[in-house]
Amino acid sequence: MTGRIYNFSAGPAILPVPVLEKAKAEILSLKGIGMSVMEISHRSEHFESILQSAKQGIRHLLNIPENYHILFLQGGASLQFSMVPMNFLTRAETAEFVVTGAWGVKAANEATRYGNAETNFSTAANGFRSVPARDALNFHPDARYIHYTSNETIEGVEFKYDLDGFGIPVVCDASSNILSRPLDIDKYALIYAGAQKNIGPSGVTLVIIRDDLLQIIPEGLPPLLDYGRLAEHDSMFNTPNTWGIYLVGLVCDWLKEQGGVEALQKMNEAKAAMLYDAIDSSDGYYTGHADHSARSLMNVTFRLPSEELGRQFCEEAAALGMDGLKGHRSVGGIRASIYNAFPTEGVERLVEFMSVFREKN
Ligand SMILES: Cc1ncc(COP(=O)(O)O)c(C=O)c1O
């Protein structure tokens, strides 16, 4: 693997090697134009075609109908925690939050600046290990929108279904599992995701927003925080992250070559199963954080018998070329992030190491 290690980092995360190679080949001169993508005008026809190709890539992979806009913004998923309520919530209105991890808590807290942000459902009491059953949720019919996080990156807890708002607009933070499986797009009013896990490099935020939502945005928002203005200008109200968008396009091409999100889902299920099997067959040496039914295919979280052994595990793994395994400080233990671009051989290597480490310790 050309001196590369296995990078289990939660994000910024591993990118597909063929994407990096293509970017490397084009870094001095893009498709024979004598400049890199970072040096050409964002208003040039060259960049216009890069932007359209990245948008088409996302639209095609996720089968997004024409009544949804695809935007490439800046400010990360964190800015979406603010932009969504700024655009869609007033003081007199309530948004309901389904909170299954730390990022959902942040999204809900941020929304309280703009209106009522009510936690409709939370798994905080059990340490964020599960997601609600499909039919367990009841929303107030007057709720302005419902917000949830389809994959909680820190706890490794993932929804296995597209949440149904039963007519209430659903907003989803899909930062850490977008493009890992097909989506039932019709269920969503707005989906956002920081790019740095499954879409491309940091510095780009993907927003997929249904057309009708653009009609109800209040007047007077700063244009860069107004989805309507951003959509009107096709993500180019100001200079976008041209390099990042270019890489998003290359990642989409690579995903298509892999067979699209249906094929990726199968690969992701197979990779995750290897790790969860290693946990489940360890006679309790390794314990998974998430309940079985909510286990993430993207972020596999588990613990060793002590935090000290966890530290040793990470150090020894890093010495063997497997890095980024330390769990988030709020959860502890280990987190193996195995996004779309993470190779099966790397998972096999980790499983082998888990077995050896357990024998020795
Ligand atoms: C699910 C989720 N939401 C939001 C964020 C925040 O993203 P950003 O750093 O792009 O603001 C992250 C970052 O890891 C995340 O995993």
Structure overview:
This protein has 361 residues and is of the alpha/beta class. It folds into 2 domains: 19-257, Aspartate Aminotransferase, domain 2; 259-360, Alpha-Beta Complex (Aspartate Aminotransferase, domain 1), CATH 3.90.1150. It has 9 helices and 14 strands. It has helices spanning 17-25, 45-62, 76-88, 102-111, 227-232, 242-257, 260-280, 307-319, 344-360; strands at residues 6-7, 68-73, 94-99, 116-122, 145-149, 151-152, 157-158, 170-173, 190-194, 205-210, 287-288, 299-303, 322-323, 334-337. Strands 2-10-9-8-5-3-4 form a 7-stranded mixed sheet, with helices on both faces. Strands 11-12-14 form a 3-stranded antiparallel sheet. The chain has a two-stranded parallel ribbon with strand order 1-13. Strand 6 (151-152) and strand 7 (157-158) form a beta hairpin. The protein is globular and about 65 Å long. The structure holds pyridoxal-5'-phosphate.
